[in-house]
Request: fold
Amino acid sequence: MTSITADLGPIIESGFFTSSPVHVGLIVGGIVAVVSAAVGTFTIIRGQSFAGHALSDIGTAGGSAALLAGVPTLYGFVAMNLAAAGTMELIGIRRPRGRDLATGIVLGASLGLAALFLYLDTTYSNTTGATVNVLFGSIFTISGSTVPVIAVLGVAALTAMVVLYRPLLLSSVSYELAAARGVPVRLVGIGYLAALAIAVSLSAVTIGAILSTALLIGPAATALRLTKRAGTAIAVAAIIGVVATWLGILLAYDTAAWSGQGQGWPVSFCIVAVVFAFYLAVSLSTRHRPSAITTPSAVIADMTH
Amino acid sequence: MTADTLRPVSGPPDSSAFVLSVEGISVVLGRRTVLDRVSFTIAPGSFTGLIGTNGAGKTTLLRAILGLLPVSAGRVRFAGDKRSRRNSAIGYVPQKIALEPDMPLRARDLVSLGYDGHRFGVGLRSKERTESVDQMLDAVNATGFADSRIGNLSGGEQQRVMIAHALVSRPQLLLLDEPLANLDISSGREVVDLLARIASEQHISVLLSAHDMNPLLPVMDRIIYLAGGRAASGTTDEVVSAETLSGLYGAPVDVIRTHGRVLVVAGRGSGEILAGSPDPLAGLG
Reply:
């Protein structure tokens, strides 16, 4: 055992497996990556990546307000994102054109609030690094007491995705088709937006509000290049997300140990960097292999069009 | 002239045998009356063409039948007359669905969604579902590309998969909105032949909208001709006549039959073509 630990020494710095912030980080990172994978795959399928990214920016208003009120930022993110998702649905996220409009209006208003709250955070309360914490997060600063809350929210979002899976897929193919089959399309859309709001909030506490889209879209986009089926894509995205998050945490821990002064690279940067590396690697390796996703007839159709 | 003077040419419908009975429905969108007291019935196992120019109200009529639009007058009845049966009694193929190449669905998965996609939950694989899906893929000659991504298929292939999707739930009536609009002539003919075969083999009624009636002439049992929000229905010979269509358009109309094709032209020298492809090569296909 000792020899293995010694061999891994340069890769996994000592103390990694005994550090409490690392434990919390690995657990939270795992939950968040799985939720983001399930929700993010549908975000891409439904063409709502902009709404997903907007929600993460919108969440900064909630996160900064929570700091001002002295409660965990997670609560601020969740409350703000659910409210924003509801407003976007009311304004008209169902129509493709109305969708961007609704998102833009809510996004603009929220960023104004965020500017106010962050200003108040840094000016009138002594929350040092409030801006950096809300915008870029740090998985190592999550307190152990919020882990159960994160787990409950994660399970709720995943349950919603399991229940909504088939009608959501059908209405993603065609809203009209699903409605004609008797699917309560509006209700299904609202349920999905609520799951998206939770996923983005969880992602925001993990890697920061600004970066949370990376975890939502990155692994799912990578998985969609590798598989032909929605279910498989979610599973692959979950694996990529968990591996990327854990590798990012390890990288941040190691860089801190290597520097000798405990000043490593920001963990959010490390996670996002690994996610992006996955995407890049998969993109490059599948680019010249059209047979993986096309059929001969499709290639001929492409040529004749 | 009011719509009351324009009864279905074939007289009152035989109410004993229909899968769908549209009874004097009107649809108002905004301030425009898109459909004005439209009536017709669809008999079991029949092939009906819904013909009209762009903007004549074909899509509106199909959406009203599906219950996606409220009707301001009249009613839509189905065999058995239970409103709740509507969703399972009708298969629907909407006009141009954007099936992006990155949509993670195989042709097989899309057909599977037709089987149980309206139900909640992930839907575990069942023997019945797999068999129904395989059967339907075979019926539309899609077995060869069943495992390809739907977004990578050609327009004609996608159309066949959509038909399988609509039929796998075993409806009595299949509604198709302009299924030939984006297809070349040979793919279009393939789809029409396929639908005619399915209608007769599986005893499913087909109601198909198109702006050109000519590709449907060999297979159409009945025609519903929409113009100015009103409809005339009956056999092709009954409806596509100068007399009936002049009444429908409220203006003189000529019907020209040449080389087995039909052309509807505005009369009195205007010569505007109202229905039927003017493309002389279309008949050569």
User: Anything to note?
Assistant: Chain A touches chain B at residues 41, 44-45, 162-167, 169-170, 172-174, 176-183, 224, 227-233, 293-295, 297-298, 301 (CB under 8 Å). The CA atoms of residues 96 and 109 of chain A lie 21 Å apart. Chain A has one domain: 2-304. The domain at 2-304 of chain A is CATH 1.10.3470.10 (ABC transporter involved in vitamin B12 uptake, BtuC).
